[in-house]
Amino acid sequence: MAHLGPRELKRFSAEPIDAVDYRLDVDYVGDGIRQHRLDVITPHDQRGPLPVYVYFHGGGWTSGDKAALTRYCASQALAGMVVVNVNYRMAPRHHMEHMMQDANAATAWIAQNIADFGGDPGRIVLGGDSAGGQLSALLAAATGRPELAAHYKLEPALPFASIRGIVQHCSIVDFSVIFERGFILGLGFVRMLLPGRGRGQHLERAARFLSPIEWLDANYPPVLVTTSRRDYLYRANINFVAALRHHRVVVDVLVDDDALHTWQQDSRHPASREVYSRLQEFVRRHAGAVHSGASGA
């Protein structure tokens, strides 16, 4: 197992899981910058090929790092999947086009290399929390919707059929809530994700290209949504679930009553065990065999 440095030991990675193997800080673009690094976490003695869970961290598109998600990702690898934990460029220096291109570049690296780690590039589940959930959901949509891919100047790296599922933890998947009076996130969040901070653009029309809910159809992959009634993005998540059901997309939903935003990444939270169990069952059902009963908590 690779040595875990200070970044991996802080927050929810304070007690690293050593029953998995770590390959840290792989440069998936080749330019040497921290935002273009990913970690690959694999179960010991895996019998591959295994499904691949690709995770994008949250942080309001402006902060965050994959290091804080090391324990969360290792918990899923324990259950018998290859987990890829991804960094990407962030605002305000970069906007959504850069983030989408980074997410696509990470999946291109996965398509070309993940078999070397025992993963199956034909069985991918994309996931994330908060802003990272939005990014994963939007990337899946762009993979299947040429208009959205063209907007972000993407040549999708994955065949659409290889995306077997989407995992969303307290994600900002419906931007319409931002335009409602009194919402905790202001319109500045929309502007910072647009080129030139949205100057000269109609923000509500531009936000359509940021909002995964706008790009759902009957071909969208199955989705697992976990949220909490106390989360400020709760209504965005519930709107997303309703839209998925409208399009007859398979959706599994877990709603906690009391947890705060992105509690799912904290394995010590009482509700996280159920999240991990549901997540692993979701991957098992839609992307193939994983071990049963491993929570990593």
Question: What labels describe this entry?
Answer:
alpha/beta, Rossmann fold, 30% helix, disordered N terminus
Question: Could you characterize the architecture of this molecule?
Answer:
The chain is built from nine helices and eight strands. It is of the alpha/beta class and 297 residues long. The protein has a single domain, classed as Alpha/Beta hydrolase fold, catalytic domain (Rossmann fold, 3-Layer(aba) Sandwich). Strands 1-2-4-3-5-6-7-8 form an eight-stranded mixed beta sheet, sandwiched between helices. 49% of the residues are buried.
Outline the fold blueprint:
Blueprint: H1 6-9, E1 20-27, E2 37-43, E3 50-56, H2 70-77, E4 82-86, H3 96-113, E5 119-129, H4 131-144, H5 146-151, E6 163-169, H6 188-192, H7 203-207, E7 223-228, H8 234-246, E8 251-256, H9 272-287
Parallel strand pairs: 3-4, 3-5, 5-6, 6-7, 7-8
Antiparallel strand pairs: 1-2, 2-4
Helix pairs in contact: 3-4
Brief rundown of the structure:
It contains nine helices and eight strands. The protein has 297 residues and is α/β, with parallel strands linked by helices. The radius of gyration is 18 Å and the shape is globular.
Q: How would a crystallographer describe the biggest sheet?
A: 8 strands, mixed
SSE pattern, N- to C-terminal: HEEEHEHEHHEHHEHEH
Uncertain segments are 1-5, 8-12
Structural class: alpha/beta
Count of extended strands: 8
* CATH homologous superfamily caption: Alpha/Beta hydrolase fold, catalytic domain
The radius of gyration is 18 Å
Range of helix content:
25-40%
* Outline: globular
How do the strands line up in the largest sheet? Answer: 1-2-4-3-5-6-7-8
Mean pLDDT: 91
Beta fraction: 15-25%
CATH topological fold name: Rossmann fold
Query: How many angstroms separate the termini?
Result: 19 Å
Number of domains: 1
CATH architecture: 3-Layer(aba) Sandwich
Count of alpha/pi helices? 9
